[in-house]
Amino acid sequence: MTTPLPTPTPAHVGESPWRLLWRRFLRHRMAVAGAGVLAMFALAALSAPLVEAQLGGAGMSVDLLSRFQPPSAAHPLGTDELGRDILVRLLYGGRVSLFVGLTAAVAAACFGTVVGLLAGYHGGRFDAFLMRFTDGVIALPLLPLLIVLAAIDLNKLGVPAGVVASEHVSLYRIVAIVALVGWTTVARLVRGTALSLRERPFVRAAEAQGATAFRIMSVHILPNLASPIIVATTLSVGHVILLESVLSFLGLGIQPPIASWGNLLTNAQDFILDRPLLGFYPGFLIFVTVIAFNFLGDGLQDALDPRAIERRR
Amino acid sequence: MAQFLIHRLWPSLLVLGLMSFVAYSLIGLMPGDPVDLMITADPKITSEDAARLRQLYGLDKPIVERYGNWLMAALNGDFGYSRLFAKPVMEALKPALANTVLLLGLSFALALAIALPAGIIAATRPYSKLDYAVNAFAFAGISVPSFWLGLMLIVVFAVLLGVLPAGGTGELGKGGVWENLKYLVLPVATLTIASVGGHARYMRAAMIETLRQDYIRTARAIGAGETRVVLHHALRNALIPVVTIIALDFGNLFSGALITETIFSWPGMGRLIYDSVMGNDFNLALVALLLATLLTLVGNFLADVAYVALDPRISFREVER
């Protein structure tokens, strides 16, 4: 009854979509370089405790007798104004910046996908309302608003005092804030594609068979949206890292003693006249990371679909 | 035209109205309240006094009622007093607004003057060395953290070379033109570099798309020169999407102003918002935030008008429907 299908050979099927994708991606040299740099940074950030142990385990501790040490074997990039090892602080800062960038971008993309799917699939007044709302959020001056959001007293919001006092609260707060304002790009992108997909025969067929709206959205429409969402999310990671660093720089993001590339610059600003290098490193790392994410997103866009996605911020 | 204005203006007013409520609530969620500040200033205030004062100022009432009271006063032109400046909010805002408009206007004009030609030139020679150079510069501009760029510019031009001031505005009206202008150079440069990359990329993409159209081939076929094809036939159509995207960027422009003004001690709106939020100046923070929103909305609105003016296929009448 069930005759086994003949095993497809490369000669039969040609190139698999994944291989094609990979080959198109490799053609984008800057994107490959970006991916390489990011992999290196991620590895370096993950190995921060190892580096710290290698350097005698005292990288993060304050040592006022050895402030502003020049680079040496014990401190490859020297020490900062409190005698802490600059390299170790940069690596720990990278962990935080990359973590915030990735989680906030993914959270914002999820929220944006839900809003966009609902608006695009249901259409009509519901769509008009959601898109008006999205337009309204886009029209807002982002950073001034973020500053007010970051200054909110969590106690007044009814968050338990124990949570507010914990060290990591500034980390999750910034992820939440960025996700709260960063979903609009994905929402518009998803909505536009969903609007055109719902008229396609395969969606009509599913509807005729009585599939629920949830099933159609999740099984039939969402997989077709994967590439624009992936591209938009990659591009927004860079944007999020910039936002995090500027908020931390202004003293409203990640709070010391947790290091992030943004708040490392706040400290460095006070010594910028005498020790410009202290301020150079963190900003340069932000710059390289963000540009790597942007090149990666650009390359993915070309590889996944050369024409379907407009580049929006 | 009048109908277009009405049709286009009411959503903006709605956004502004909603924003005023959201901003009011958010600022209510900031640490402390005006009475707390009085207590810090005068330790003799007892808790009964504090309760009495809260009642007097209506701080014990629900947020919606407080917002209603604020809105009524605001609509009558009373925005309250600024704590930091010790004068009415509007008087504190006016000079800051003028400073920001000067800074943003200059860098906006400069960014367009660089980005549009760069994008067009890159688009007419796609995948040439020049195109790659424009692209690389654009990517760098998009990706550079502007506060860091500002700091590095200070290090190079104010500290190492000593040719430009690190911040401030100087004394207006004293000295020559350069004495006044030199305070603008670094902030304007920072803001321009941050926005020129994005604009150039959009211009390039839109121009490449337009140059693929059939009517461009026709124009070439009837013998129009390349310059005429690009500037006369293609440019106007290519500008349409660019205008929309640049308009959506007005909000970003304000974010940039906040950063640059803080770095270069430029007394503008962005710095004012930051200082007022940090200094618990509730009245000032609220109005400054709303004014920034209003300016962004006005920018978006002007772009809509430009959009219709650029595209003869869309009339003011059609947009109304």
Topology of this protein?
The complex is a heterodimer of chains A (313) and B (321).
Chain A: H1 10-13, H2 17-27, H3 29-46, H4 48-54, H5 86-122, H6 124-139, H7 142-151, H8 161-165, H9 169-182, H10 184-197, H11 201-208, H12 213-221, H13 226-249, H14 261-270, H15 276-304
Chain B: H1 2-28, H2 34-41, H3 47-57, H4 63-75, E1 81-82, E2 87-88, H5 89-124, H6 129-143, H7 146-160, H8 177-211, H9 214-221, H10 226-248, H11 250-263, H12 269-278, H13 282-310, H14 316-320
Antiparallel strand pairs in B: 1-2
Helix pairs in contact in B: 1-13, 5-6, 5-8, 5-13, 6-8, 7-8, 7-11, 8-10, 8-11, 9-10, 10-13, 11-12, 12-13
Cα end-to-end separation of chain B: 13 Å
CATH topology of the largest domain in chain B: MetI-like fold
**Proportion of strand residues of chain B:** under 5%
Quote the beta fraction of chain A.
under 5%
CATH architecture of the largest domain in chain B: Orthogonal Bundle
Residues in helices of chain A, as a percent range: 55-70%
What does this entry show, briefly?
The complex is a heterodimer of chains A (313) and B (321). Chain A is an all-alpha fold. Chain A has helices at residues 10-13, 17-27, 29-46, 48-54, 86-122, 124-139, 142-151, 161-165, 169-182, 184-197, 201-208, 213-221, 226-249, 261-270, 276-304.
Question: What attributes does this structure have?
Answer:
heterodimer, A: 313 residues, mainly alpha, MetI-like fold, B: 321 residues, 2 domains, 1% strand, globular
Explain what this protein looks like in three dimensions.
The complex is a heterodimer of chains A (313) and B (321). Chain A has helices at residues 10-13, 17-27, 29-46, 48-54, 86-122, 124-139, 142-151, 161-165, 169-182, 184-197, 201-208, 213-221, 226-249, 261-270, 276-304. By secondary structure, chain A is mainly α. Chain A has one domain: MetI-like fold, CATH 1.10.3720. In chain A, helix 4 (48-54) packs antiparallel against helix 5, helix 5 runs parallel beside helix 10 (184-197) and helix 11 runs antiparallel to helix 12 (213-221). The longest helix of chain A is centred in the N-terminal third of the chain and has 37 residues, at 86-122. The N and C termini of chain A lie far apart (55 Å). Residues 308-313 of chain A have low confidence and may be disordered. Chain B is an all-alpha fold. Chain B has two domains: 14-89, no CATH class; 94-147 and 195-320, MetI-like (MetI-like fold), CATH 1.10.3720.10. Chain B contains 14 helices and two strands, in the order H-H-H-H-E-E-H-H-H-H-H-H-H-H-H-H. Chain B has helices at 2-28, 34-41, 47-57, 63-75, 89-124, 129-143, 146-160, 177-211, 214-221, 226-248, 250-263, 269-278, 282-310, 316-320, and strands spanning 81-82, 87-88. In chain B, helix 5 (89-124) packs parallel to helix 13, helix 7 packs parallel to helix 11 (250-263) and helix 10 runs antiparallel to helix 13. The longest helix of chain B is centred in the first third of the chain and has 36 residues, at 89-124. In chain B, 36% of the residues are buried. Classes of the chains: A mainly alpha (313), B mainly alpha (321). Chains A and B meet through helix 6, helix 7, helix 13 and helix 15 of A and helix 1, helix 6, helix 7, helix 8 and helix 11 of B.
